[in-house]
Specification:
mainly alpha, Arc Repressor Mutant, subunit A, 2 domains, 8 helices, about 75% helix, elongated
C-alpha cells in the first residue's frame, strides 16, 4: 500500500502540484482512508521528502556504479552518466519534475538531507571533470565547478521537454549532448 500511495502521489503532485494536492485527493484516488495514509506517512511533506530522497539516491547509486569502473576513461564515464540521466526520463520523469519543482516545500531539516544527496551527485560529476583534466582527456584551462553546473543544467532540463518515444532516441540525445560538451572540453590531438 505504501508503494501505491507513493505512485499515486507522484502522479498527482506532477499534475496538480504539491500544494494543490491534498491528502484527501491522494486517498480518494486510491480508495482508502486517511488513516491508511497516516499509517505510512506522518504528513504530506514527509511523503514529498521520501519521493525526492528516493529519486536522488537512485541517481547517485547509478552514477557511482559508473564512476567506480576502473576500466573506463573519463570520456566514457561522462557519456554513460549523461545517458543514464536521459534514459531515466522514461521511468522517472514525474519524480524528477517533482524533485526540481516541489523540493522548495520541504522544511529545513528535510531540505538539508535532500540537498546533501544532490550536492554529492554534483561533486561526483565535478571529480570526474577534474580527473579528466588531470589525465589529459579534457582541456586544462576549464573551471570544473562551472562546467559541472552547465552539464547538469543541460541534462536536468531534459525532463521537461524530452519525449523518449519521439523522433530523437535516448541514445541520439546523449550523443548530441556529449558531442556538445566534449567539443567544448575535449583536448585537441
Amino acid at each position: 500500500m505504501k508503494k501505491k500511495i507513493i505512485e499515486t502521489s507522484i502522479e498527482l503532485f506532477d499534475q496538480k502540484g504539491f500544494k494543490e494536492t491534498s491528502v484527501q485527493d491522494i486517498v480518494e484516488s486510491i480508495g482508502v482512508t486517511k488513516g491508511t495514509f497516516y499509517y505510512y506517512f506522518n504528513s504530506k511533506e514527509e511523503l514529498l521528502k521520501d519521493i525526492c530522497l528516493s529519486y536522488i539516491e537512485d541517481l547517485v547509486r547509478q552514477q557511482e556504479e559508473i564512476l567506480e569502473d576502473l576500466n573506463k576513461d573519463c570520456t566514457t564515464k561522462l557519456n554513460e552518466i549523461v545517458y543514464m540521466l536521459i534514459k531515466n526520463i522514461k521511468t522517472q520523469r514525474r519524480s524528477a519534475r517533482i524533485f526540481f519543482r516541489e523540493m522548495r516545500h520541504l522544511n529545513e531539516q528535510h531540505l538539508k538531507e535532500i540537498k546533501g544527496k544532490r550536492s554529492l551527485f554534483r561533486k561526483n560529476y565535478q571529480k570526474l571533470i577534474e580527473e579528466g583534466i588531470t589525465e589529459g582527456e579534457f582541456k586544462n584551462n576549464l573551471n570544473p565547478d562551472i562546467l559541472t553546473f552547465g552539464i547538469l543544467g543541460i541534462t536536468n532540463w531534459s525532463y521537461y521537454w524530452f519525449n523518449p518515444e519521439g523522433e530523437v532516441s535516448e541514445e541520439k540525445l546523449t550523443e548530441i549532448y556529449v558531442d556538445l560538451i566534449l567539443n567544448g572540453i575535449k583536448k585537441s590531438d
